[in-house]
Fold each of these.
Amino acid sequence: MNNFGGDWTKSKIEILVEYAKAYLNIMNVYANRYNWKLLYFDGFAGSGEIIRNDETEKEFSDINITIGAARRIIEIENPRAFDEYYFVEKDFENFRELEKNTKKAFPKKKIYATHDDCNKKMLDLSNYLRNPKNKNYRTLAYIDPCGMQVEWRSIECLKGLPVDMWVLVPTGLGVNRLLKNNGQISDAWLERLEKFLGLDKDSIEKYFYKKQENLFGEIVMIKTEDAIKKSAKLYHTRLKSVFEYVSNAFELKNSSNSIMYHLFLTSNNRAALNIANDIVKKYNN
Ligand SMILES: C[S@@+](CC[C@H](N)C(=O)[O-])C[C@H]1O[C@@H](n2cnc3c(N)ncnc32)[C@H](O)[C@@H]1O
């Protein structure tokens, strides 16, 4: 596992599918007993069937197509299916394919697909679930961006809700690349980091940089050596301020063994944590 980009693309989906089956197995009992509705929410759904690897993935990939998560999740019938599916995709071409591969391919299922920004739809999801009329909904969310599109406020708005969420964090490919070695980060990149981490400039600098005096008595910034691992640790802590439980991370590495992303499961349910940690351990090995 994990030797090629192709492998981690697949592993990511296998982790999700394995967890979804365990989730549906447990929820099946409660859904019958308490009339719960099981919702699947995918904020970065892609085309739904075929992943055409983007430039980043192509660089590390030995294959360029694989079956997408949306389709894999819709096809789950055992132990039961989800009651409703909600897919979000921002790219119009992908969205048109997504509709074809989800709504149109499974006309008997309750599937919604929307051409929009995930941040907006995460807020809509939170408002929907907070409505007392919808208190019987239980949600499994999958947040699978390729970059730093997810704003911290979109994660934060899910606080206290019955949502289990797999979230892919671009620690190596995103955060680490924006953290310049000399600390001279442009305003645009800083703003991006601030929105992504939900932290201000000073907190980000303090966490990732040391201040040191150089030969000429000037104060210079030195970036921490393990910025990728530190950003995963930081994001884990941030997630823990929103959800009661956050799993260990599945590390997605490129062919040179550098970490590109960390994948976490968040939940307010202890059982979810144990299941996710078991799955993550298996795939990290
Ligand atoms: C890594 S791919 C998703 C792959 C998909 N989860 C799968 O397994 O088949 C990320 C997708 O998110 C879309 N995207 C990028 N920014 C977005 C945003 N702000 N909101 C929603 N979708 C976005 C991209 O067009 C791309 O199709």
Note: Residues 13, 44-46, 51, 68-70, 88-91, 94, 117-118, 144-146, 149 surround S-adenosylmethionine (CB under 6 Å).
Amino acid sequence: MIARSAGERPARPWVASPDVTASGPPRLLVASRVVPGPHEPALAPGAVVVDADVITAVGPPEVLAHRYPHAERVDLLGATLVPGLVNAHVHLAFEPERDPVAPPADRPTADLAAAVARNARRLLDEGVTTARDLGDRDGVVAAWRTSGALGPRVLTAGAPITTPGGHCWFLGGEVYGPGDLRQAVAERAAAGVDWIKVMAGGGMLTPTSPRPWETQFSDDALAVVVDAAREAGLPVAAHAHGTATMAACARAGVDTIEHGGWLSGPGASPGAAPATDPRPEVADAIAAAGAVLVPTRARGWRSWPPEGDLDGLLARLAWNASRGIRMVVGTDAGAGPGVFDDVVDTLTLYRAAGWSDAAVLAMATTEAAAVLGLGDRVGRLAPGYAADLLAVDGDPTRDVEALRRLRLVVAAGRDHVPT
Ligand SMILES: [Zn+2]
């Protein structure tokens, strides 16, 4: 890991590798339709000028062809250009093919690094050009980022801060006493993380941790983590499945609440989904604090957990929104049922819960980028924004499943043909 003096903040990662950018003359991408943002009027036909890793113009093809006579023209007729997708919760070092409850405790660092590289490619294959990694080990995500490999822009949190034997202790983030919390944040800041991740509650992956609906850290401890992160200029993401933990996160002032399933106790029978208790006063506190929820449902949300409560899940998501809680898309790819090749299935969850296709697309582009602190350069097709875009057959603002028909992915100006 790169040594850095305390207090010196690294620049936010702009491309997967700052050393490798797209080269060559500007390109004029011409498509049948350009959607600058999910709630912005489309251009039909439309064009986007890409110069290295930045978009320099969006407009009618003939106007831009005249203005940029030396640009290399790329015809994507029949396709729609949309912003690249943002996945706000992934674990690149995890492998969804492996037993989800067999943690990467004893695996060599090189294995984890190989998984990161592989999973980063998979994210591009599904059109994800920006992702926030919320837990790895040994700094493998930060190391990958400097490798120059083609992949999405990735924000990293390093090892999540947890209690001894607590949720995901095997990632190396155990803190043994309240006096060590401030140091834990400082170490991560010095290592160049973009977010601080704290396991505020127990989790499903870790049999030794408190139960998923139980809280791991006291209010005082969470307050120290948030305060230390603020001092270091870093936002805080908190893992919280339970209603009590979500309430604690709102009190502490975290920036995002991960999972947020309103769990309150065990299910009625073995194999059944845990009991839930969505409390209006907690929802109002979350909304008032401006904490954003990342529900992290993955592919297979219709049938997971096996004896789940699908109608209840959909109703709770809609209820969150009705209480003013902002939500963005994250899949927890790598953990549990989370995979790296079907973010579109997660998008259909929100549609099933009542969102329009355009609103769902916003949750995975403009809104997610804003929550990740990248709203001024990621999530839209506009001059000055990153050259992160997708060419798809169909119009995702009317049917998000059109995103399955990817023709081309451009990530920081570099082309990737999905496989
Ligand atoms: Zn996670």
Note: The first helix runs from residue 61 to 67.
